[in-house]
Specification:
Elements lengths: L3 E7 H9 L3 E2 L11 H13 L6 E6 L2 E2 L5 E2 L2 E6 L1 H10 L5 E2 L5 E2 L3 E4 L4 E4 L2 H5 L7 H5 L4 H11 L5 H12 L5 E7 L5 H11 L8 H9 L3 H19 L4 H7 L1 H4 L2 H6 L14 H13 L4 H8 L13 H17 L1 H12 L12 H14 L7 H18 L6 H15 L1 H12 L2 H11 L8 H13 L11 H6 L3 E4 L3 H5 L6 H4 L5 E4 L1 H7 L4 H14 L10 H10 L14 H22 L1
Parallel strand pairs: 2-6, 3-11
Antiparallel strand pairs: 1-11, 3-6, 4-5, 7-8, 9-10, 12-13
Amino acid sequence: MSKYKVTQSAVTQLLEDVRREQIAIPELQRPFVWDSVKVRDLMDSLYKGYPVGYLITWQSVGAHLKGGTVAAHQQILIDGQQRITALRAAVAGLPVVDKRYRQVRIRIAFNPVTQEFATLTPALDRSPEWISDISELFNAASTYGFYSAYFDANPEADKGAVEAAIAGLEQVKNAQIGIIALNDDLDVETVSEIFIRINSKGVPLSSADFAMSKIATYGDRGRNLRKLIDYFCNLTVAPHVFADIETNDTEFAQTTYLSAISWLKDDSEDLYDPEYTDVIRVAGLVGFHRGKASSIVSELSGRDPETRKVDEARIPIAYDRLESALLQIVRKYHYENFVMTIKSAGFLTPKMIGSRNALNFAYALYLRRREEPEMSEGERKRIVRRWFVLSMLTGRHSASFESTWEQDMRRIDAVGAAAYLKQLEEGELTDGFWDVRLPAALETTSTASPFFQTFLAAQAKSGARGFLSKAITVAAMHQQSGDIHHIVPKDYLQKNGFPDRGDYNQVANFALTETSINISISNLPPSEYMAKLSEQIANGTLSLGEITDADDLATNLRENAVPDNLSEVVAGHYPEFLAARRRLMAQAIREYYESL
């Protein structure tokens, strides 16, 4: 059975369908990413009769149009948004939204003598040989006056050639563009697979993309919910654009949604800057108890998960649930308390968190647990901290994480978050994990490893000082500056039997330390720089850091999970040193987890 149909549509008919919202283009509210050169090239291709690629649409049942009417079969444009927006700008003369959310015009000029297109410049605007704005021709009530004006300004022009060129330009609005319309009964995964196979660039289209497109089809409310997601994500990264949104998007500024995210204009936190895919995933868990973004599309389409049939009465209820979830996600109190909860576990900077999915699920868990009034805020935060760190250590939210999410939420709803977390801990964080699997996982050269980053988080939470530092903490160096230092220097190892990067760059050979201490150690082996430190302790003359007490030195080595026989380590003992430190790091992580 065919999963699509292919049709042709003239440019003017295509633009009329967009105007009447028979084709929905959610990206009209988003900044236009094409530059004017691409718009020019598109017009040149249409003028010369070159193909400009297919548009891909997907049927949307129950979409709301302006005036309150419902379209039985509105099409969502899932590929070709920029081309349509370019046509609206060049042919219809409509403004686009720039990066500051201002309505701006892109004017394309045409030279009938040379048959060239160009982005309008002041010089071209002054030249009588150029038609300054081709949209004026397309939208003129009568082309007779247009021709007369041109020949009055260019009396020497070859009338036959110019008339033919302008007539050819006029025909652009009748140029045919292919449309691949996917059937409305296709599931999101099938639509995504078709899109990837058709698209010559092979750009993957995620379920979240479909969800964002679907959200925007529900009239003004849907468009503004879509904007709420976009603007929230943008403001977490660039708070300064709030004034641009407030000034230039008057429709959105009149809603309560803008005030819900206005606090972000003063936000400087960057630990969790979610993208729209993250917001969709969290909203799915919070609003629908579902892990797959495609489930949101089904819910917003009125599809009953039990019968698989569409019931349009379910659609407004689904949008109510989505709106409620989004308003929880963007609420200042919730967002800031969640971020503080993660930071209280020692994860202080974005680079320490390699799994965005672990962060997303933790936020959804935090919001979902707020529905349990019998749970104290302290207990809620404890569960979120432990769940997040467990996820980091076990990779629970990698691979087929969406199915795992739904399974986890079902179990949490069935037995409670605390009880289910305890089940996971007893099943996954066994003695075998701490004593065998975790030390083995620390045998890596990747400083981005979640195991190494969790070790650094453990140090940050405990207030540990940097390696051989008397006062500067690991937490302070994370937030300011500090060096990842080779405990057994790289140069020394390379010259003494360990030339491979996989040997000297083991994370078990790394410690965070002050730059000045790193410089003082240089390429000395531990046996030599620890001897210098012993002299410093004996005579009080500082030459390597500021530690002048033997007990303080021993404490510092423990804080950094460094074997206490470091002063005896030379190249020949390096493998044994790494094995011993991995065990100490794993033990430190275990003690940290149990303290959360």
